[in-house]
């Protein structure tokens, strides 16, 4: 009844879950019982104990979430739920694009409904308990509706175009699909903060004053034309602070959370901005976009090989291959390749964070950046002593203590 490909898919899901659990346990057991010497100024003992309780609450919640999602996907596969859904969409419409949109629309909606109670608990119980949550019920519901509508519009548009190319170009459809996906990636990399982010948050230009003058002085030294620094109402949802760089060309923007403005001194904010400018000046943003385009090309090339393979459809209990069944089966089989590429990207990302820190130390004060990193980490109750393996496979940023040590030389 069940094919070899079916058991391969089951094995991939099971091993991925076990591996994540193994890394999570390693990380949990590595938590320090005392405050590291370098963090005693931002982590008084009571706050450090609170951090451990927050980590433990998130770890246990992650185990429950992972177990639920794994059991659901294994159950759907074992009882051929995707085959049933395929039959349902075929009974509703004969249009291939309509079938695929309906198929993935139902899966997306079901996934959202299943994860909704977990998301509510995470936001309004765990985050609320530890003093982070500022999200109201109204904001939560509006965010959910906006995300669903935006995902349906963008995902539906891209999927429709790719399926059209699939029928029009045959074996070479992946090349046209790669072109469309690449254009979307470049477009959103360039215009995310000007088109997408304002749908969820308010952005306002940094006001004139001492902070802006300090930032302009630093940016001139760094060879960066500063015209778009925005303050975002991050406090609308959380007390956690952050900053990020987005876009390129005339659409490049630096976004500071209002919580960051409230928590840090002017020198610390300037140092954080110098770090973000470093990502741009060192071409990390452009390189990240290029790597994303290359990775999507590899994935689509492999998809072009396997999309019509009857073994993939058979593994999901479907006798006649179709685009949406092939895409779903391929996605499940592609998971190990995606994980390996993801590890490579996290390694590169950590290296780039060190480089941006070094850039910031050159054009701002290294000590101010160290102080800012410590405050941001402590305010978010981040784990100061993660296990090296957990860092290697999961961290896009180096651990705090490693960044502080690297900045010591400046």
If you had to describe this structure to a student in words, what would you say it looks like?
It contains 16 helices and four strands. It is mainly alpha-helical. It has two domains: 4-191 and 282-408, no CATH class; 203-268, Zincin-like (2-Layer Sandwich). It has a four-stranded mixed sheet with strand order 1-2-4-3.
The number of helices is 16
Summarize model confidence as the mean pLDDT: 91
Roughly how many Å apart are the termini?
A: 64 Å
Radius of gyration: 23 Å
The biggest sheet amounts to: 4 strands, mixed
The portion of residues assigned to helices is over 70%
Protein name: CAAX prenyl protease 1, putative
Subcellular location: Endoplasmic reticulum membrane
Active site: 276, 357
Binding site for Zn(2+): 275, 279, 353
Short description:
The chain has helices at 4-29, 45-78, 81-92, 96-129, 137-169, 173-196, 210-221, 258-263, 266-281, 284-306, 310-315, 323-333, 335-363, 366-379, 388-394, 400-408; strands at 203-205, 229-232, 243-246, 253-257.
Provide keyphrases for this structure.
globular, single chain, four-stranded mixed sheet, mainly alpha, 4% strand, Zincin-like
Topology:
Layout: H1 4-29, H2 45-78, H3 81-92, H4 96-129, H5 137-169, H6 173-196, E1 203-205, H7 210-221, E2 229-232, E3 243-246, E4 253-257, H8 258-263, H9 266-281, H10 284-306, H11 310-315, H12 323-333, H13 335-363, H14 366-379, H15 388-394, H16 400-408
Binding site for Zn(2+): 275, 279, 353
Main location: endoplasmic reticulum
Cofactor: Zn(2+)
């Amino acid at each position: 009844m069940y094919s070899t490909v079916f058991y391969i898919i089951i094995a991939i899901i099971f091993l991925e879950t076990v591996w994540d659990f193994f890394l999570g346990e390693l990380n949990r057991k590595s938590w320090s019982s005392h405050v590291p010497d370098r963090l005693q100024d931002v982590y008084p003992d009571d706050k450090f104990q609170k951090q451990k309780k927050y980590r433990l609450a998130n770890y246990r919640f992650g185990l429950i979430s992972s177990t639920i999602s794994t059991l659901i996907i294994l159950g759907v596969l074992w009882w051929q739920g995707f085959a049933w859904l395929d039959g349902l969409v075929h009974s509703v419409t004969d249009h291939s694009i309509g079938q695929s949109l309906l198929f993935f629309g139902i899966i997306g909606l079901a996934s959202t409904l299943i994860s909704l109670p977990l998301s509510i608990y995470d936001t309004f119980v765990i985050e609320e308990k530890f003093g982070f949550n500022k999200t109201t019920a109204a904001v939560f519901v509006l965010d959910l509706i906006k995300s669903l509508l935006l995902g349906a519009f963008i995902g539906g548009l891209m999927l429709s175009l790719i399926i059209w190319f699939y029928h029009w170009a045959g074996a070479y459809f992946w090349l046209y699909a790669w072109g469309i996906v690449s254009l979307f990636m470049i477009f959103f990399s360039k215009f995310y903060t000007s088109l997408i982010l304002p749908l969820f948050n308010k952005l306002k230009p940094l006001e004139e004053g001492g902070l802006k003058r300090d930032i302009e002085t630093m940016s001139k030294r760094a060879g960066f034309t500063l015209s778009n620094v925005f303050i975002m109402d991050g406090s609308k949802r959380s007390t956690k602070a952050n900053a990020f760089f987005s876009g390129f060309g005339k659409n490049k923007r630096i976004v500071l959370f209002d919580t960051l403005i409230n928590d840090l001194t002017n020198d610390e904010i300037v140092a954080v901005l110098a770090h973000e400018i470093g990502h741009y000046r060192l071409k990390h943003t452009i390189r990240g976009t290029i790597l994303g385009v290359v990775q999507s090309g590899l994935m689509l090339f492999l998809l072009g090989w396997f999309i019509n393979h009857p073994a993939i459809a058979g593994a999901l209990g479907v006798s006649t291959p179709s685009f949406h069944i092939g895409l779903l089966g391929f996605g499940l089989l592609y998971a190990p390749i995606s994980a390996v590429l993801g590890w490579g990207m996290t390694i590169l990302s950590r290296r780039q964070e060190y480089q941006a820190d070094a850039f910031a130390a050159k054009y701002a004060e290294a000590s101010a950046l160290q102080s800012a990193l410590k405050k941001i980490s402590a305010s978010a109750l981040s784990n100061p002593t993660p296990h090296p393996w957990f860092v290697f496979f999961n961290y896009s940023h180096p651990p705090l203590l490693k960044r502080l040590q690297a900045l010591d030389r400046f």
